[in-house]
Design a protein that fits this description.
Elements (H helix, E strand, L loop, with lengths): L1 H7 L39 H8 L4 H10 L5 H10 L5 H7 L4
Helix pairs in contact: 2-3
């Protein structure tokens, strides 16, 4: 449901186009619905604000919040993008990421 997608971090403006899928499974994938691997990653360019926080000894939560404010995509958000693309499932993203 839309409220669940919002709670997971799917942006409001993407909810209508978001069509999560569920892997069906087959003998080739061991009935998991997955074949091969897809990377989830978060890339954090060291903007000036972040550099200053690091040099000041800020903790990881402060750095993460600042990074999100300037638009850095978190690991969970990266996974949700791949769910929206039909590359993986919500269940798998929830299994391998932490809430933002």
């Amino acid at each position: 449901p839309p409220h669940t997608l919002l709670e997971l971090g799917v942006p409001q403006e993407e909810i209508d186009q978001f069509a999560p899928k569920k892997g069906a499974g087959c003998p080739n994938c061991g009935m998991t619905g997955y074949r091969g691997r897809v990377a989830l990653y978060e890339v954090m360019p060291l903007h000036e604000e972040l550099r200053e926080l690091v040099l000041a000894g800020a903790n990881s939560l402060e750095i993460k919040r600042a990074a999100m404010r300037i638009g850095v995509k978190t690991l969970r958000q990266s996974g949700l993008t791949k769910v929206g693309e039909g590359v993986t499932t919500i269940e798998e993203v929830l299994r391998v990421t932490m809430a933002d």
